[in-house]
Design a protein that fits this description.
Two copies of one chain form a homodimer.
Chain A lengths: L10 E4 L8 H11 L3 E5 L8 H10 L3 E9 L6 H21 L3 E5 L8 H22 L2 E4 L16 H11 L4 E6 H4 L5 H10 L3 E6 L23 H10 L6 E3 L4 H4 L3 H15 L1
Parallel strand pairs in A: 1-2, 1-8, 2-3, 3-4, 4-5, 5-6, 6-7, 7-8
Helix pairs in contact in A: 3-4, 7-8
């Protein structure tokens, strides 16, 4: 088992985690606190020049770890599937402009069709935008989502499924994002993390905690240590593969969003140091 | 794929589904509607003579399909684990008195210890009460629960895990309960249902639906056809194993509990005929 992180050199925070802050404010405050990485949600870029925003982040000595999110490929409606491909191509352009080489995919699902069909459309969708991704030097990370999101957010609900798909697509521009919130319950997690690493597919590592009780299916994530996920143990499995990337704090929480975000940022750093 | 059920001869309803009704009222109304099976939740037996209640159910021509629920074996505290064994022994006595040969196990989990430890305590707990179960002629069905319940309700979250454990315990008095709500998202579901049947472990089949969106982690289940679960397809996999038991409607819903339960019962029967 790993020790807790001694410093913040591998700490990344997702803009959505401190949603009340504009990205400029987040960048300034993350940097002042010693955070070294930022993952940018696309809503944070609205109305901005993306290239300039990327430069601003780098001026704060922040690594732009990834852009969140592409995906949402499946639909019974072929027009919507085509629109999804266009949107993913746009995300690839945005990632390149922002200066990050990774997009996280929340793959999507259409509850009006079988999961198998949604899964096929996801794989076809990724394959369709792969030429643009590789031309732009942008990698696509399939993020398996918790089974409670299988209706609309993702038909890829285990790391085994994500590994299967990444291996089937067999490209250096397709890999997997491991998020402890989605995967902690899986009895095959350690083995699938190892497999993911062995195939060179482990591209991102997201952390937070599962509160007990959890009161909302989407917006009640906890800080590391606040719940029952063995974050440090899972990080040790991830690092055993040779992964040297960031530990990305991704928390959706109506409770924390109501707090003073400077206070919340201090809590994030404390939880990272003590319980990750 | 199966056709929808033509009659109600295999329809069972869980007392919790029509929670506002006392069990005597439920029995009378189920029977009048042509329902042939009832699964009894233990809270419905409070303050009653259990043997007489069993007789009452049979007088209404209802098969007592199972007693819900035993389980909740894991705890970091050895005294609580001992208390859980006592409670499961009590449940076995209650099942025998009620005149049913099946108890459904919601196995439990303790969020303050690793899932692996909870799983070991579950297996040890079932093994510990097996002598009483077999002496009473009562079978114990491990119900794998949705991964969103892995913190406190069950550390057994896939049918593969339940199959593994039932096969390890290797007793005619231990098997598995398949509930579409918990398992519908699993890409290996068809294969694991087949395996469950091949080992003679498929002891119960529960139905309802996953609403999209679902607004509560526990109390927002839907009627069959109201959500995205392919209930009929899953039933066809269950029946392909040779399963001839009841289709048990188990719905926790604050919305439906607020309705006139006679109206709700009509909806259950309509949903059963049309979407199961």
């Amino acid at each position: 088992m790993n020790a807790a992180p001694k410093d913040l050199s591998k700490l990344c925070i997702h803009t959505i985690t401190t949603k009340p802050w504009a990205i400029e404010e987040a960048a300034k405050n993350y940097a002042a606190a010693g955070v070294k990485g930022i993952t940018v949600w696309r809503d944070a870029l609205e109305g901005r020049n993306i290239r300039q925003t990327g430069n601003l982040l780098r001026e704060h000595d922040l690594t732009v770890v990834s852009l969140c999110r592409g995906g949402f490929f499946p639909s019974k409606d072929p027009n919507k599937r085509k629109a999804a491909l266009d949107d993913n191509r746009k995300a690839i352009e945005e990632a390149a402009a922002l200066g990050t080489s990774l997009i996280v995919l929340v793959c999507g699902a259409d509850p009006t069709q079988p999961l198998e069909e949604s899964r096929k459309q996801i794989q076809d969708g990724i394959a369709a935008v792969l030429p643009e991704a590789s031309a732009a030097g942008v990698r696509l990370a399939i993020e398996p989502l918790h089974p409670m999101y299988a209706d609309t957010r993702s038909a890829i609900n285990t790391l085994a499924q994500a590994n299967d798909m990444a291996e089937a697509l067999n490209s250096p521009y397709v890999g997997v994002a491991v998020d402890v919130y989605h995967l902690w319950w899986d009895p095959s997690l350690q083995q699938e993390i190892r497999r993911c690493g062995e195939h060179g597919n482990l591209m991102a590592f997201h952390i937070c905690d599962w509160k007990s009780p959890t009161t909302d299916l989407l917006l009640d994530r906890g800080l590391m240590g606040e719940g029952c996920i063995p974050v440090r143990q899972i990080r040790s499995w991830v690092e055993a593969t040779g992964f040297t990337g960031f530990n990305e704090v991704e928390i959706f929480s109506t409770i924390y969003w109501q707090e003073d975000q400077s206070v919340f940022l201090k809590k994030i750093i404390k939880a990272y140091r003590e319980n990750s």
